[in-house]
C-alpha cells in the first residue's frame, strides 16, 4: 500500500473511531488479527474488537473527547503519529468516577498497515500518569511541569539539508551518546542554543535541562539504558520517530522519594525528534512513567 493510503487509513480511524465514536469503522480498516504493543498500561486483547472496547472505554469516560493529530511521520508500511486527546471526564474511567475535570493528554503511536490495506499492528505510549493526575485518581508526584504550549501544538516540517536516513543516524547517535554518558558527544548532535525538549513530566526544557533530567535518573539508576527498537525507527522530512525500552537497576539515590531497592525497573517510550541540517533542534517525549511509578511502589498496579 502507498504512504498516501496509510496516512488516509490512520487519519480516518482517529477521526471516525476516536473523535466521532463510529466503532463500526474498525471492521473496515483494522485487521481482525490486529496486535497492540503497549498503550500506557492498558490491556487490549488482539483483534479489532479489543480496539473497539478501548475506544468505547474512553468515549464513555469522555463523551466529548476529540483526538487531534499534531504530527504524522510515514515511512514504508508504518505511520508514526503525535496526538492530543481533549475531553471532559463525565463517566467512569477504569474505576475512577466522573470528576468533571477537563483533560489534555498527549500520546505518540506507530501503526503498521498490512498488505490488505488494514491496520495490522500498533505500538503506543500515552501519558497515563498525567491523565490519572488530571482526573484526580492519584496525587501529583515527581516533577511539576509548567505549561508547555509547544507540546500541544502542531509542528509542520521545516527545511533541512539532511535526508531522512541521515536524520536517523543523528538521532540514534544521540541515544548512543546518552547511553555511554558522553555528554559532549550528545551536545555536538544538538542545536545549541535553540534546542527544546517537550516532556509531559518536566515541561519545555533546553539542553541543560535534558542533562539535569538524565543526571537525576542516572543517579538513581546507574546502569540506565535506552534500547531502541530498530524495527520501529521511522523518518520523514525533518522528523524521526524512535520507540524503545528504558531500563535500569535502582541501586543509587532515591528516585521520586523512594529509597534504593535494588529492583530492576523497565518501561517503554517513544520519542519524536526534529533534525535540522544535521542537528537535533526539538524533541517530543512520551513514556510509560506510570509503569515506572508502579514498579517503584508509588501507585498500585492497574487492573
What would you note in describing this structure?
The protein is an alpha+beta fold and 303 residues long. The chain has two domains: 3-140, Nuclear Transport Factor 2, Chain: A (Roll), CATH 3.10.450; 164-295, Nuclear Transport Factor 2, Chain: A (Roll), CATH 3.10.450.50. It is 28% helix and 34% strand. It has helices at residues 3-19, 25-29, 48-61, 128-134, 164-179, 183-188, 207-220, 289-295; strands spanning 30-39, 66-75, 78-88, 102-113, 119-126, 196-199, 203-205, 225-236, 239-249, 264-276, 279-287. The strands form two sheets. Strands 7-6-11-10-9-8 form a six-stranded mixed β-sheet. Strands 1-5-4-3-2 form a five-stranded mixed β-sheet. Strand 6 and strand 7 (203-205) form a beta hairpin.
How many structural domains? 2
Structure annotation, total helices:
8
Distance between the termini: 37 Å
In order across it, which strands form the biggest sheet? 7-6-11-10-9-8
Question: Which structural class is indicated by helix and strand composition?
Answer: alpha+beta
Number of strands: 11
- Poorly predicted segments: none
Percent of sequence in beta strands: 25-35%
Oligomerization category of the chains in this entry: single chain
Shape: globular
CATH topology of the largest domain: Nuclear Transport Factor 2, Chain: A
- Major beta-sheet overview: 6 strands, mixed
Give the name of the CATH architecture of the largest domain: Roll
Question: Secondary-structure element sequence?
Answer: HHEHEEEEHHHEEHEEEEH
Amino acid at each position: 500500500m502507498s504512504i498516501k493510503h496509510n496516512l488516509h487509513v490512520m487519519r480516518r480511524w482517529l477521526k471516525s473511531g476516536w473523535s466521532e465514536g463510529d466503532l463500526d469503522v474498525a471492521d473496515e480498516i483494522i485487521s481482525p488479527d490486529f496486535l497492540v504493543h503497549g498503550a500506557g498500561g492498558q490491556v487490549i486483547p488482539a483483534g479489532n474488537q479489543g480496539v473497539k472496547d478501548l475506544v468505547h472505554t474512553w468515549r464513555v469516560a469522555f463523551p466529548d473527547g476529540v483526538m487531534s493529530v499534531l504530527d504524522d511521520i510515514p515511512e514504508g508500511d508504518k505511520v508514526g503519529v503525535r496526538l492530543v486527546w481533549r475531553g471532559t471526564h463525565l463517566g467512569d474511567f477504569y474505576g475512577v468516577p466522573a470528576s468533571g475535570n477537563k483533560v489534555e493528554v498527549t500520546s505518540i503511536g506507530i501503526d503498521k498497515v498490512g498488505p490488505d490495506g488494514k491496520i495490522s499492528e500498533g505500538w503506543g505510549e500515552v501519558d497515563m500518569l498525567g491523565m490519572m493526575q488530571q482526573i484526580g485518581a492519584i496525587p501529583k508526584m515527581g516533577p511539576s511541569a509548567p505549561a508547555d504550549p509547544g507540546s500541544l501544538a502542531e509542528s509542520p516540517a521545516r527545511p533541512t539539508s539532511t535526508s531522512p536516513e541521515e536524520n536517523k543516524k543523528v538521532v540514534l547517535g544521540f541515544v548512543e551518546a546518552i547511553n555511554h554518558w558522553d555528554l559532549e558527544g550528545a551536545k555536538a548532535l544538538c542545536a545549541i542554543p535553540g534546542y527544546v525538549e517537550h516532556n509531559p513530566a518536566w515541561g519545555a526544557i533546553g539542553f541543560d535541562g535534558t542533562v539535569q533530567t538524565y543526571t537525576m535518573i542516572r543517579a538513581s539508576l546507574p546502569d540506565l539504558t535506552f534500547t531502541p527498537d530498530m524495527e520501529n525507527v521511522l523518518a520523514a522530512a525533518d522528523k524521526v520517530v524512535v520507540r524503545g525500552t528504558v531500563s535500569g537497576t535502582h541501586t543509587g539515590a532515591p528516585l521520586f522519594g523512594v529509597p534504593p531497592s535494588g529492583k530492576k525497573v523497565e518501561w517503554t517510550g517513544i520519542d519524536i525528534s526534529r533534525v535540522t541540517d544535521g542537528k537535533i533542534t526539538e524533541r517530543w517525549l512520551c513514556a510509560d512513567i506510570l509503569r515506572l511509578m508502579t514498579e517503584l511502589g508509588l501507585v498500585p498496579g492497574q487492573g
